[in-house]
Design brief:
The protein is an alpha+beta fold. The protein has 11 helices and 24 strands. It has helices at about 5-10, 15-25, 45-60, 115-135, 155-165, 235-250, 280-290, 295-310, 360-375, 395-405, 450-470; strands at about 60-65, 70-75, 80-85, 105, 110, 145-150, 170-175, 175-180, 180-185, 185-195, 210-215, 225-230, 250-260, 260-265, 325, 330, 330-340, 345-355, 375-385, 385-390, 415, 430, 435, 450.
């Protein structure tokens, strides 16, 4: 049976775009302040999950809401289960957008919205892939299940809860990274460097940091930082130095005074934590300025540590943990959250991504040694192990075949620093939606998905699902 998958997608183009925009208009950012049993991650996240499940139910799929933390949409028959692992939560929108980050505006053949490429656009493309197969009545000898997570951008509570209660697919893919095929993912560790509060005496200058804050998520480069200082009689001097610093570092910021405090603000550039060099860390930049001031002892320790160990070093060289391998490349370090308070001390929230052959136990020991030597401790250490699928695996062989037939290009195997739901499966890979040569705008302002790429991905996913789950004698070409 020969099926023109792209033609089937084009028949449904308007509906696919409209459903994608409807999903993108839901502000599904983790909202821990407004959690409740029916919305354990906030109302916006709940609404996005329910949107997908309602869509599936309307189209005749089997659907299940798993305690409002995850859900699935399923069709097909057979013992074996194929998984498509998606997520509908998004990172905070950040500043500097050209249009409403939840407006899903179409400009120049692109849909602009937070989550357009990560991961709502790809989720809808994969859903339409399932919808096409179902509507064509194609025979399947396996079940196909789209598993929808709601906490991928934070702590993965969704998949942990889901797989504690539901069936684990034999194999599957996550449409949440790059084409052709991501067969290896780095390990991901989140942890905090914590500076214990100490009694410090003010230096003669009298400059004291009252409060400093930057960043919202471990896996994002902070694009804004703010510090409140007490600098009696020296506000003008500090302000002048700050303006010189902004010019020298080619940064945008400002200072203001009020209520006896001097407030410094600095803007950076957000980026995904898997490659911090793609962004400009506002917290580290402001820390480097503060480290050059005569500060209270405790504050001096915090900001000097930031400048010496993290600034301009995303590879962990200054932390003595630099490592690289031929499969997944360099270890990376992102300082995603920074907080300092004169009463409570300071904390750095770190997102560490390490190669598949790295020894995380050794890395952790090195970090603990560095921390102790500088008056810090390491807390809240969590670790998601690296993921790797052999090149001759049936899943990879099948997806390579599909990609090459749909695009006419060689399906190279790639590795990434990002963590996708694919690592939840023993035989799982990340598969699109970002095509080679396209800029990665995930987690950045003016995030978008190219409509032609959305349609192309849907066609690839449709053939992939059918190749993985369809009767062998009826495979498409």
């Amino acid at each position: 049976m020969k099926i023109d998958w792209m033609n089937e997608v084009l028949k449904r183009k308007d509906a696919l775009i409209e459903n994608t925009r409807e999903l993108l208009k839901i502000k599904s950012v983790l909202d821990e302040e407004n959690m409740n049993p029916d919305a354990p991650l906030g109302e916006g996240v709940k609404a996005a999950l329910e949107f997908m499940l309602n869509l599936g139910e309307k189209d005749g799929f089997k659907v299940k809401n798993v305690d409002h933390l995850a859900g699935h949409i399923e069709f097909g028959k057979g013992e074996e289960l194929i998984g498509i692992l998606c997520h509908v939560d998004v990172v905070p929108e950040g500043d500097g957008w050209s249009s409403d980050p939840f407006g899903a505006e179409i400009r120049d053949g692109k849909i602009y919205a937070r989550g357009a490429i990560d991961d709502k656009g790809p989720t809808m493309a994969a859903y339409y892939a399932m919808k096409i197969i179902k509507e064509l009545g194609l025979p399947l000898n396996k079940r196909v299940r789209m598993i929808i997570g709601t906490d991928e951008e934070s702590e993965w509570r969704c998949v942990e809860h889901y797989f504690a209660h539901e069936e684990m697919p034999a194999m599957g893919f996550a449409p949440d990274a790059d084409f052709p095929i991501i067969y290896a993912e780095k390990g991901i560790a989140d942890f905090d460097f914590v500076l214990t509060p100490v009694t410090g005496s003010l230096q003669e200058s009298g400059i004291e940091v009252i409060r400093f804050e930057a960043g919202q998520r471990y896996n994002m480069v902070p694009d804004y930082a703010v510090a409140s200082l007490m600098a009696p009689g020296q506000e003008e001097w500090v302000g002048s130095r700050f303006e010189e610093f902004l010019t020298a570092s080619d940064s945008e910021g400002k200072f203001s005074t009020g209520n006896g405090e001097l407030v410094l603000e600095l803007k950076g550039v957000s980026a995904h934590g898997m490659e911090p060099e793609h962004g400009k860390n506002a917290g580290l930049l402001l820390s480097s300025f503060l480290a050059g001031l005569p500060l209270q002892e405790q504050a001096k320790s915090y900001f000097s540590f930031a400048a010496e160990k993290f600034l301009n070093d995303s590879r962990g060289k200054n932390l003595e943990i630099a490592f690289s391998d031929h499969i997944t490349g360099d270890l990376t370090v992102n300082v995603g959250k920074m907080i300092y308070d004169k009463e409570e001390g300071g904390k750095f929230g770190i997102n560490l991504r390490y190669p598949v052959t790295a020894d995380i136990a050794y890395i952790k020991k090195r970090l603990q040694k560095i921390a102790a030597a500088n008056g810090f401790s390491i807390t809240n250490f969590s670790d998601s192990k690296p993921h790797y699928v052999e090149e001759n695996d049936f899943l990879i062989q099948t997806l390579q075949k599909v990609y090459e037939e749909q695009t006419g290009e060689k399906a190279e195997l790639l590795s990434i620093g990002g963590g996708t739901y694919a690592r939840s499966l023993k035989s799982g890979v990340a598969f699109g939606p970002l095509f080679p040569g396209r800029p990665d705008v995930a987690h950045q302002k003016d995030e978008y998905i190219i409509i032609d790429d959305l349609l192309k991905a849907a066609a690839i996913y449709a053939q992939a699902v059918y190749e993985l789950a369809g009767h062998r004698e009826n495979q498409s070409g």
